[in-house]
Amino acid sequence: MSVQLTLYDGARSIGGNKFLLEAEDAVLLLDFGLNFGALGAFYDEFLGPRPTTGLLDPLELGLLPPLEGIYRPDFQLSDGRPWERLRRRAGYRRLDHLDGVLITHAHVDHTGQLSYLREDVPVYTGVTTAVVAKVMQDTSPAGAERETCYVVPREEREGLLHTGNFRKVPSRGRPFVALDPVPDAAAAFWQASPATRALEAASLRASPDGARVGGLVVRRFPVDHSIPGSCAFAVGTPAGWVVYTGDLRLHGTRGGQTRAFMEEARKLSPLALICEGTHPDQHSPVTEAQVAERAGATVRSARGLVVADFGPRNVERLLAFRQAAREADRLLAVTTRDAYLLEALHAAGEPGVGDPLEDAHLALYVKTRAQRLGWERALLDRYAERCPERVVGPREVGAAPQRFVLCFSYYDLPELIDVAPPGGTYIYSSSEAFNEEMHLDLDRLRHWLRHLGLAFAGEPPRRDGTGGDPGFHASGHIHGPGLVELVETIDPQLLIPVHTERPEFFRQHFPHRRVLFPRIGEPVRLA
């Protein structure tokens, strides 16, 4: 009845969750994300892992767990590197098999290193998370670290790894299993190739909630977070249930889902609760309803162009701005990436997301671009055929800026040179800066807005903590009182905090509970 948990990342850091759960003969991974802090310790925007050496760099630098047997063979050099060194390193293990990976949601800090895993390892999640992950891969530049849903086989030539000829070597789909129904439209999207290279897609298979993975029952619970499709998991081991929250909150429009999960998890009398703790110091978080109200009032009172800047794939926020635009008799103009995401979510049956091609309050903004990838060309063809009157560019927006709410981010700012708005409002509805790099980005944003004559709504506090225009952003994570409510409601025998830089919060607030803080790479026996 042995049950063992090993944290390979995400213990005393925000993100990078990679947890290995073993129970008798079953071996599961709970998420397999990228730790941006660890990556940034070695790399920057212009310095990254060498694509021609596969696993060598991330394993050597400790960015991947030293688990021989779980990674893609085509990412490994024939000279034996880096395993010849790693076999002598603390934490090294060889696994004979891996039954599956449970993915809670599609944020990169939970999915970003799936690319390196063997392509035959099944990925268990929900249909919405699966299609969002494919959208992210379809619309991103090709690269070894982005092969989440389908892989491009490598071959070794002269001691280096190369992708095969795109005319002869197709991409191959990973086996994804959705623990909820898969609509026909979502299955068709999963099979579609976004690029010139053909795609041999593995099916997006539906399996009922409560499916067995490696002989263990796995249950999936929808929760509220800042990306659609987020869930928590419970794994039934011979010694009891192990519950994993993923990332979640109570103050979004689907906070009721989180509370429903808490009640269902309590009924399981769990052996252990692996619990996120990103923002334990928050006591009265801004809610998504408050953000929608504040954004709506700002859009209604604005003159000239309105630019809405919010996090990528935060569809809840996008829909709030769509409603604000409708109330102000404006069009919400989204980029091609956002339109592609909305199409995929509609195909997946995501509640509240209609067909963007049929949405009279939604326009497609087409950026100035010399080349376009296959997915974007096909998207433009669909819009040209179905709703050409709602396809706009800098000329149309610049000629009538008062008609639009333009969904742009920091990286879209150069496009505003072509729009040339005669003033207007820039609504910053994203997270505050929490490191020097983000403060530098905000400094650049302020320079842009001054140059363009745009008023700054939702401006975050400056480095010294002064200033700021709060109320335009809601965190994706549960607050301190919510964490206490969650833990006390679920009432686990053992509490394991993860995804946190504040472990002392759990010591202070749960002195009557058994709280465990595992060290990275050291197995902990749960039963």
Question: Can you characterise this structure?
Answer:
The protein is α/β, with parallel strands linked by helices and 527 residues long. It has two domains: 3-281 and 477-525, 4-Layer Sandwich (Metallo-beta-lactamase, Chain A); 288-457, Metallo-hydrolase/oxidoreductase (Rossmann fold), CATH 3.40.50. The protein is 28% helix and 22% strand. The chain is built from 16 helices and 28 strands. Strands 14-12-7-6-3-2-1-28 form an eight-stranded mixed beta sheet. Strands 23-22-21-24-20-25-26 form a seven-stranded parallel beta sheet, with helices on both faces. Strands 15-16-17-18-19-27 form a six-stranded mixed beta sheet. Strand 25, helix 14 (436-452) and strand 26 form a beta-alpha-beta unit. The radius of gyration is 23 Å and the shape is globular.
SSE blueprint:
Elements: E1 3-9, E2 18-23, E3 26-32, H1 36-40, H2 56-60, E4 67-68, H3 83-86, E5 93-94, E6 100-102, H4 108-111, E7 123-125, H5 127-138, E8 150-151, E9 154-157, E10 160-163, E11 171-173, E12 176-178, H6 184-191, E13 199-200, E14 204-206, E15 211-213, E16 216-222, E17 231-237, E18 240-244, H7 255-267, E19 272-276, H8 288-301, E20 305-310, H9 315-327, E21 331-334, H10 336-347, E22 362-365, H11 374-386, E23 391-392, H12 394-399, E24 404-407, H13 415-419, E25 424-429, H14 436-452, E26 454-457, H15 480-490, E27 494-498, H16 503-509, E28 524-525
Parallel strand pairs: 3-6, 4-5, 6-7, 7-12, 11-13, 12-14, 18-19, 19-27, 20-24, 20-25, 21-22, 21-24, 22-23, 25-26
Antiparallel strand pairs: 1-2, 1-28, 2-3, 8-11, 9-10, 15-16, 16-17, 17-18
Helix pairs in contact: 5-10, 6-10, 7-15, 8-9, 10-11
